Amino acid sequence: MLSVTLPRVALRSAAPARQWASAAQSVRYASTLKDAVAQVIPEKQEQLKALKAKHNNSSLGEVKLENLLGGMRGLKCMLWEGSVLDSERGIAFHGRSIPDCEKELPTAKDLGLKGKEMLPESMLWLLLTGKVPSVDEVRGLSAELAEKGKLPNYVEKIIDSFPKTLHPMTQFSAAVAALNHDSAFSAAYNKGIKKSEYWSPTYDDVITLIAKIPAIAARIYYNVFGKGDGKQAIDPSNDLIGNYANMIGYGDHEGMTDYLRLYIAIHGDHEGGNVSAHTLHLVGSALSDPFLSYSAGLAGLAGPLHGLANQEVLGFCLGLQKAVGENASDEKVKEHLWSTLNSGRVVPGYGHAVLRSTDPRFLALSRFCDTRPELQKDSLVQLVQQLARVAPGVLTEHGKTKNPNPNVDSASGCVLYSYGMTEFKYYTVVFGISRALALTQLVWDRAYGMGIERPKSFSVDALQKMLK
Length: 468
Ligand SMILES: CC(=O)SCCNC(=O)CCNC(=O)[C@H](O)C(C)(C)COP(=O)(O)OP(=O)(O)OC[C@H]1O[C@@H](n2cnc3c(N)ncnc32)[C@H](O)[C@@H]1OP(=O)(O)O
Ligand SMILES: O=C([O-])CC(=O)C(=O)O
Hints:
- Helix content is 57%, strand content 3%.
- The chain starts with a strand and ends with a helix.
- It has 468 residues and is mainly alpha-helical.
- Residues 1-29 have low confidence and may be disordered.
- It has one domain (78-468): Citrate Synthase, domain 1.
- The strands form two sheets. It has a two-stranded parallel sheet with strand order 1-2.
- Bound molecules: acetyl coenzyme *A and oxaloacetate ion (OAA).
- Oxaloacetate ion binds at residues 270, 274, 353-354, 407.
């Protein structure tokens, strides 16, 4: 069948992408993401059904006391479709590494926009379907997100009522929870929709939520830090992050806009066990709608051992520059690292619960810096690179962490700072925008009919009895 590029005029119209798909009989417009998801669901359901029929009683390993006490590290007890994390190679999205995605997924340039990085919309499509979308499919998805991006008035009022001193992550989590006022899933559930149909309104909520997140994040930025024009206007011909960059006052900054696209595309899904993804999946298992589930996930992301680490890294780097000066020698940097460790603190941006080598997301952000002369000469970016050379040796000698290498947080916030976003309390909000891509799992949870999560717990006395 013939596939054609959507005409610019259609992108500017108010008609939703779904209508375009059915409008023409003789020519087939790029399919919508929902159609593509509906197409893959039956075959994946069959695959899971066959697996259950054959292997329901097969063991995936034993549970040791150390797993129970060690934050369930290593336990194989979650289903997660979008990505799998290998401790050495890092994250793969439906089998595709970050460099694969950089080669294959439609970019800003492919859509005729300024910039050349892959679009988070492309990643969203890949996560939900396992397939690389065409340029037209991504264009249609961008247009659909733009069309759904405006905030309801009551949510704007809620955000405007927050004190400026309330942490941006608290504001973010509360504002997205309030969007559940209009949840399609909740409404359908209350009407008695069949379980086999749960995935469809869940999908609708996930898309609505992802569409509105830039405006929420931008309004918080404006209220707290006074940047952007406070209007959150949406250009229907722009991509999700192009619009977000405009809203926060970086619309003309090609480097920042492209950095945000890359950052948000690769930071989104990191298999299921990380705190934010696991939380949204757990809350969703009670059939709480995607708005509440994501709100809970954001609360987890706001912890310093998880997403907030990127804010911590910036504080650490600025503190280091203050203590030993810019362009300090490796020796001076080592001394500062040792004083951090000797005072009982962690070195933020290093170590990982699963990874045992350098985080490929860190490598992707470093490659981005290498292609930008303005970043290469920035002293903070240089410090990030110096730390990546020096800190692994110090952490290895310290001997505690199982992974002395940099994780993504060691670079992500510092590039934002170098590009002029100096409000580091806001950085985890940017990470949160990205983590919305993990919401794709909720669609699969409902499509697979996954049950409510409820692991078994024991007291120390009960464990002692069992193990004696
Ligand atoms: C997007 C993300 O969430 S990526 C992670 C972001 N977080 C950070 O960068 C914070 C710094 N790093 C850390 O605190 C840890 O490495 C974590 C939380 C990421 C992983 O924790 P764990 O899986 O428990 O790591 P690990 O098994 O290696 O920990 C063993 C010991 O090394 C310590 N350790 C781990 N990483 C570091 C570090 N960067 N600096 C100093 N000590 C460390 C742990 O605190 C632990 O000490 P303890 O035995 O006294 O409790
Ligand atoms: O996987 C983890 O535990 C932490 C992490 O890197 C992420 O959530 O992006």
